[in-house]
Design brief:
- The chain is of the alpha+beta class.
- Helices cover 16% and strands 40% of the residues.
- It has helices spanning 5-8, 55-72, and strands at residues 20-24, 28-34, 80-90, 99-109, 113-122, 125-136.
- Strand 4 and strand 5 form a beta hairpin.
- The longest helix has 18 residues, at 55-72.
Amino acid sequence: MDASIEKLIPHRSPFLFVDKIISANEKEIIGLKTFDKAIDKMATGSFSDFDFIPGMILIESMAQCGGAGIKKAGLADGFFGLVSMDNVRFLKGATYNEEIKYTIRNIRISNKIIKQSGIATVRNAPIAEATWVCARIDNA
């Protein structure tokens, strides 16, 4: 994992699911994650006999990638939290030690709301897709 990811989003191990942001701009974010059984132990209990990464962990990883890319590109500032998910589809399983590529499309970006959609792929085959909204959370 690239240590600079921790400067972009508040997530920490064992709930940090982004290794690297390859590119980030106003239209698209590309990121990577390879789940490692020894490091990502939290996810191992779901399909322990099959080595599958749980689908919701893939979606969380995709959203984290989108958030880290927004910060890396300087498109929004502040603390944003996930408030809704739509059109979530799990297309194929992913296993440990496979590189997962996330391609995130920025639909709407403001200082209050971020809407994105993304697709996760392994070896160029789609495994999951979703659309989500994050809202800025201000400390009261």
